[in-house]
What we know:
47% helix, single chain, globular
Amino acid sequence: xxxxxxxxxxxxxxxxxxxxxxxxxxxxxxxxxxxxxxxxxxxxxxxxxxxxxxxxxxxxxxxxxxxxxxxxxxxxxxxxxxxxxxxxxxxxxxxxxxxxxxxxxxxxxxxxxxxxxxxxxxxxxxxxxxxxxxxxxxxxxxxxxxxxxxxxxxxxxxxxxxxxxxxxxxxxxxxxxxxxxxxxxxxxxxxxxxxxxxxxxxxxxxxxxxxxxxxxxxxxxxxxxxxxxxx
Length: 231
């Protein structure tokens, strides 16, 4: 199944090239993050509830949207409506890379009663031409830190356009399903399925989902997340 996913993802290449640039340009929050500026929680943290941490870059942060339009907020509302008593934490930082995620994962996981980590990183590594082996190492360490704390991981895959070079493209495309297999974690092949390249579902930059696109993204995450949850 994951082999098929790799071969059918080509339609997303052009979009992902633009997306990677957008993640990098969108506010340049990585340096702010390294200086200790933490993302907001969505909604207010209540430590007695089990938590789902949405951990990623601008797609997770909800770049260009109101907080209540972001997928972590919508996911919270979806879970509540379906009878799941989880608190969703928006730990997305626009412009973040796998290294930036590794730098801040410990304090995220230190929050009380974290049950699931939705991990979405890697597009900015591609933009910066970070070696795939290094990206895999960073992402693997993030996954391992979560698993060591008995936190389940929903790992979101990314794709690369042909213009990054054939070898880099192949290695990058293989990295995400390979990591999912290696660490035996739940896997969402593409967060932006049914959103990418659809002008009606994206902001004017053609990169980031608009409010309607966020609703589709929420459904994508929920579909993969639901089997991992207990009522």
